[in-house]
Amino acid sequence: GAIPTGQPSPFCQFLASELLPWIAEQWPIDAERRSIFGFSLGALASLQMLRHYPRAFKRHIGASPALWWEDGALIRAFADHRPTAAGTQLLISWGEDEDDPRRAVTPPGMSSDEATGLVERAKIIRNAQTLVEHIRRNDIIKVETYSFPGENHASVPWLSLSRSLGFALRG
After folding, report:
1. Which of 9, 10, 15, 140 has a Cα at 20 to 30 A from 3?
2. How far apart are CA 90 and CA 144, in angstroms?
């Protein structure tokens, strides 16, 4: 079964307790630049790490986060919980047209009514903005947002990588 996004996933547990310590034993790591990036469902892992292991990464990046997953559990989790890692930074980005069903890139054979339903259920922009509002109430985490003009869910991953690298590598 699915792991509710309000709880740390086995992947996040592995990342925090096994993989990151192993990497630190193998190579010198600059903890001030350690960052995690995720797009869509992958953005949930970045946000779960912020919620459950806030000191594991200095910068968290969520591009077009699929916050509709588990009926918005992660949004509710951040509404009720304030991460406590001082100096942590978060970048949330999305495509300006992600909530527009006419601009959706859909699988072959999907009708326009199905595409409309899918986009309206996902509410990528509205959900991301709600999450940002919850996190900004916590003055400890610096939150940035970026909307890619004229872009949709299919075009955002490539654009967000460039912006995310700049965010992750700043001094």
Report:
1. 140
2. 6
